[in-house]
Design goal:
The structure is a single chain. A hairpin with a 5-residue loop joins strand 1 and strand 2. Strands 3, 4, 5, 6, 7 and 8 form a six-stranded mixed β-sheet that branches. The protein has a two-stranded antiparallel ribbon with strand order 1-2. It is built from three helices and eight strands; from the N terminus they run αββββαββββα. The protein is 35% helix and 34% strand. The protein has one domain: Lipoprotein like domain (Double Stranded RNA Binding Domain, 2-Layer Sandwich), CATH 3.30.160. Helix 2 packs parallel to helix 3. The longest helix has 25 residues. The chain starts with a helix and ends with a helix. By secondary structure, it is α/β, with parallel strands linked by helices.
């Protein structure tokens, strides 16, 4: 009788823990347990500046992030979780002026407007702009620096989007 009671007391907490349905990925992201798919729509470039490849590069970067950091299947459209939006701003401007009225540093700034839809938890849906920047020496050519700067800015923005969507950031 005592043995059965001891077994019961050991199995009860284990059973309760197994009944909990929190879904967590390796990245620490909290994902609804019902979610199986995620879609990332093509992010259009609504700016007049920047390389023509800005849209494609951002869309692929966000798709890579969600594919690598979640166990969800990436689908073309109508995922259980959905990202859509556009590149809202792309700007390069001087930020530090030298004594001879020339810029010493320039800043590239990119803003991406994002709409996130969570079919299971409407309170986690959002529409928000994400802005990041990278500074570079004004002596450097913007065209040659752009790929590196855009990659760095996109890395930061996609991390911000991921944390907002999956870590309640």
């Amino acid at each position: 009788m005592k043995l059965l009671r001891a077994i019961y007391l050991l199995l009860l907490p284990i059973g309760l823990l197994m009944a909990c349905k929190a879904s967590v990925s390796l990245s620490g992201a909290t994902i609804p347990p019902e979610a199986r798919t995620i879609s990332v729509a093509f992010f259009t470039n609504n700016t007049s500046l920047g390389a023509p490849s800005l849209s494609q590069r951002f869309t692929e970067k966000l798709r890579d992030v969600v594919s690598q950091q979640t166990n969800l299947s990436l689908v073309r459209q109508n995922g259980d979780l959905q990202f859509e939006g556009y590149i809202a701003d792309y700007n390069v401007a001087p930020i530090a002026v030298q004594s001879n009225d020339q810029a010493a540093q320039n800043r590239m700034t990119i803003t991406v407007s994002v709409k996130y839809t969570n079919k299971f938890e409407s309170a986690k849906c959002f529409e928000q702009n994400f802005t990041r920047f990278a500074d570079f020496d004004s002596k450097l050519n913007v065209a040659t620096e752009e790929p590196r700067l855009v990659d760095e800015i996109y890395r930061q923005i996609t991390e911000d989007i991921f944390y907002k969507a999956f870590n309640n950031w």
